[in-house]
Design goal:
Elements (H helix, E strand, L loop, with lengths): L11 H7 L5 H12 L5 H5 L3 H4 L9 H18 L4 H7 L4 H8 L3 E4 L2 E4 L6 E8 L2 E8 L1 H20 L3 H4 L5 E3 L5 E3 L4 H9 L3 H9 L4
Antiparallel strand pairs: 1-2, 3-4, 5-6
């Protein structure tokens, strides 16, 4: 049985058509309904982005980790001008599935969900450092972008053999979420050796993260 939208209205459309919905409160309900069409009016009233957020949670299930990774791809697409709805659809998710991971850094402007320029979301990213290959827990869009650029350059080096792609990262380091410093591996022989030790599926996953 379909859940009633409220005690007075059977459906959201019935609630919306009942009267003019131009107040700040009504506009918020309308925006949230587009993301969570299954929720009742009571649930939308009580909805809190902070309570829903999984963006800073490191104890996720395997399924949640997959959704989080795709949510970061949605974030990347939105920063390039895509809408939340289109970006979510392109990665095979609904906006409601994406919201728990990036919702806190979204805001509504001119009837459209937009993303803040920077964020402090946590993400586990695989990277090759001077210590070898590993997974780092990093905080914020700036760190994700830096790892992404490095991974893209490593991937291009493995294809082209152009060592200048690695030289630009000589001495470059990143601080993880725990305050520990990690230096990117820039020596061609080490990068090639470490990459050759990674299985093909794992290598594809590693460098796919360079898109974030």
């Amino acid at each position: 049985m379909t859940q009633r939208f409220s005690a007075k209205y059977k459906s959201f459309n019935g609630w919306k058509r009942a009267k003019s919905r131009k107040s700040r409160y009504s506009k918020r309900i309308i925006r949230l309904n587009k993301i969570f069409p299954e929720k009742s009016l009571f649930e939308l009233r009580r909805f809190s982005l902070k309570r829903q957020s999984l963006g800073h949670n490191v104890n996720l299930t395997s399924a949640q980790k997959v959704i989080r990774a795709r949510s970061f791809e949605v974030l990347r697409r939105m920063r390039k001008g895509s809408t939340l709805e289109k970006a979510s659809s392109r990665v095979g998710l609904s906006p409601g599935e994406v919201f728990p991971f990036i919702g806190p850094i979204l805001f509504s402007k001119r009837r459209r969900w937009r993303v803040k320029k920077n964020d402090s979301l946590l993400a586990k990213m695989r990277v090759i450092t001077r210590r070898g290959r590993g997974t780092l827990l990093v905080k914020g869009s700036n760190n994700r972008s830096r790892i992404g650029r490095y991974q893209a350059d490593v991937n291009n080096y493995l294809i082209t053999g152009n060592t200048s792609l690695l030289n630009v990262h000589r001495g470059e380091h990143i601080m993880d979420a725990f305050g520990e410093i990690h230096y990117f591996e820039w020596e061609p022989t080490s990068v090639r050796r470490i990459s050759d030790s990674i299985s093909s599926p794992e290598l594809q996953e590693l460098y796919a993260e360079g898109r974030w």
